[in-house]
């Protein structure tokens, strides 16, 4: 069976990643890539991790465009591939070719990995976002990484980036955002509910809906569990942000305007993305 | 009274379990003080696990919260409510 990988995309972003996933991809072909955001990178990392160990041997072809290749390296993709033992022609990250603040892709494992991540995020983002936004994304990271480590049977990989079009001392506008994304390559939310039998879920979409309920949990006999994801959602929406949860073949997007649900190309594991304006109070 | 102090970044159940590990297994009749003055950011799971470990598992008479900002107080109150021990959570008003 061929792996599911992003291929031949010019842009791998929160809005385009899923349409570029090929379930029969012979390789992770990034030759045409010109832009990738944190969601695109975490999604690509999930696809690559899933494809590892499946024949044929995985090949990751870097972007032809040198500044795109440099940006990808600055986002931590080269280091990530190195850690997986995959050779690539990507250059080492140098900072060139990337604007804004990047918290590079990194793995969060048990034994304090989440605490280290919280410190890194806080230190990197604190001068670039509103205090409430900083608190919301840091709280969210604790909860989402905690869920991944506890329920998925896999470790998590995380990346954050601040996107700003402001230059020359101009104030940030509503398009200036921070994106924080967590992925794992575990069993997915539906299987997690199924394993404990606490709540019956019909499929991945249904499982995401239940996971978003306040106190919707797969943990038996512990009445306070299951508030992390819903509390994060509440915070993000309150700050005019957007939250995306992708599990297996289902994706749910929530923002102030409402909730959108759709089927997507199946990818093992869960991806959760938080995208918030840097200074929401000024644009409410 | 036993006094515990939160770390600056407190978000996981593991942290709450580690923080309460030195407490006696039975705290009936005792009050535990949680000093949040060092707290920079705290997540719901940490606070829920603190409530669970102190008030539910060990049965303390009260968990008294000091120097907590609004967000931390809100999360602690919600957690105590969910675990039906709200009446044993005492939240002191922050110093002016």
How do the strands and helices of this protein lay out in sequence?
The complex is a heterodimer of chains A (284) and B (96).
Chain A: E1 5-6, E2 11-12, E3 21-22, E4 28-29, E5 35-36, H1 38-51, E6 60-61, H2 66-74, H3 77-84, E7 102-108, H4 113-125, H5 131-152, E8 156-163, E9 177-184, H6 188-196, H7 204-211, H8 228-238, E10 242-255, E11 258-277
Parallel strand pairs in A: 2-5, 4-6
Antiparallel strand pairs in A: 1-3, 7-8, 8-9, 9-11, 10-11
Chain B: E1 2-5, E2 9-10, H1 13-20, E3 31-35, E4 41-42, H2 44-57, E5 62-66, H3 70-82, E6 89-91
Parallel strand pairs in B: 1-3, 2-4, 3-5, 5-6
Helix pairs in contact in B: 1-2, 2-3
Shape estimate of chain B: globular
Give the helix proportion of chain A (percent range).
25-40%
Major β-sheet profile of chain A:
5 strands, antiparallel
Side-by-side strand order of the widest sheet of chain A? 7-8-9-11-10
| Uncertain segments of chain B | none
Task: Tell me what you see in this structure.
The complex is a heterodimer of chains A (284) and B (96). Chain A is an alpha+beta fold. Helices cover 33% and strands 24% of the residues of chain A. Chain A contains eight helices and eleven strands. In chain A, helix 4 (113-125) runs antiparallel to helix 5, helix 5 (131-152) packs antiparallel against helix 8 (228-238) and helix 6 (188-196) packs across helix 7 (204-211). Chain A is globular, with a radius of gyration of 18 Å. The termini of chain A are far apart. The model of chain A has no long low-confidence stretch (mean pLDDT 87). Chain B is of the alpha/beta class and 96 residues long. Helix content of chain B is 36%, strand content 22%. In chain B, helix 3 (70-82) links the parallel strand 5 and strand 6. Chain B is globular and about 30 Å long. The model of chain B has no long low-confidence stretch (mean pLDDT 94). The A-B interface holds A 110, 114-115, 118-119, 122, 134-135, 138-139, 141-143, 146, 215, 222-225, 227-228, 231 and B 7-9, 11-15, 40-46, 48, 51-52, 71, 75, 78-79, 82-84.
